[in-house]
From TrEMBL:
Naturally occurring in which organism (per UniProt): Mesotoga infera
UniProt cross-references to Pfam families, sorted A to Z: Glyco_tran_WecG
Lipid metabolism listed as a keyword: no
Protein name: Exopolysaccharide biosynthesis protein, WecB/TagA/CpsF family
InterPro entries: WecG_TagA_CpsF
The keyword Glycosyltransferase is assigned to this record: yes
Gene Ontology terms for molecular function: hexosyltransferase activity
UniProt keywords, alphabetically: Glycosyltransferase, Transferase
Length: 246
């Protein structure tokens, strides 16, 4: 399904994770994007990010704003595939299939807590290595080498939008992993540093509100960007209406 400039996979969580793991077995390489309103905003406003996302080849809908926009523009109701749930489901399948995971992002204590909790949840999970997300650009070559030397099959990058996708794109051709995915603040939640919104708030599309309560200074800065995303969708809808009536 085409949404704006993106080819979306209209799959549920389990089938998306299974397809990605099957790709690892068959030697395919997937650059995964869990599309939300902030990503669309950065894509529209940031030329470097726009060009980076042209390398993405597996996109799933995440975020209530994107789901509503799809319903408005495409006249289709699709299921949400939250990035953190996709990451966890991939980890579950990887633990059963002996696939190796590498984590890149967050502070060192956060990523080590994330590893501890992932191993408790999925005892068979093979964590091939990790590195914090606070490094100079000059260190990227060393980190790429570390990831390749770890023989990781799957790379989760938790450095936030747009930094994580820019880094993946910059190093995509040199990385030997088969699944590469930006996961935003998922390490903060899995580590226990932040709480995830209750299920009822997730169903109502209010996760952003819950996150804002926990991180007001960080999240309030994003609201103008989300408003601009909504305005872009409204403009696109009005253009479609005028085109249809003409």
């Amino acid at each position: 399904m085409r949404f704006l400039d993106f080819d979306l996979q209209d799959r549920d969580l389990d089938s998306a994770a299974s397809e990605l793991l099957d790709g690892v077995k068959s030697g395919k390489k997937y650059f995964v994007l869990t599309l939300n309103a902030l990503i669309v905003y950065e894509y529209l406003r940031n030329r470097d990010y726009h060009e980076a996302l042209e390398r993405v080849n597996y996109v799933v809908p995440d975020g209530s704003g994107v789901l509503k926009a799809i319903k408005l523009l495409n006249k289709r109701k699709v299921g949400r595939v939250p990035g953190i749930d996709l990451m966890l489901t991939i980890c579950k399948l990887a633990s059963m299939g002996n696939k190796r995971i590498y984590l890149l992002g967050s502070k060192t204590d956060t990523v080590t807590k994330t590893i501890k909790n992932l191993k408790e949840r999925y005892p068979g999970l093979n964590i091939a290595g990790y590195h914090n997300g606070f490094f100079d650009e000059s260190e990227s070559d060393t980190i790429v080498s570390e990831i390749n030397n770890s023989r990781a099959d799957i790379l989760f990058v938790g450095m936030g939008v747009p930094k994580q996708e820019l880094w993946i794109t910059e190093n995509l051709d040199r990385l030997n992993v088969k699944v590469l995915m930006g996961v935003g603040g998922s390490f903060d939640v899995i580590s226990g540093n932040l709480k995830r919104a209750p299920a009822w708030m997730q169903r109502l599309g209010l996760e952003w509100f819950y996150r804002t309560i926990q991180e007001p200074r960080k999240r309030l800065r994003l609201i103008p960007k989300l408003v601009k995303f909504e305005l872009h969708i409204l403009k696109s809808y009005l253009c479609l209406r005028r085109g249809g009536s003409g």
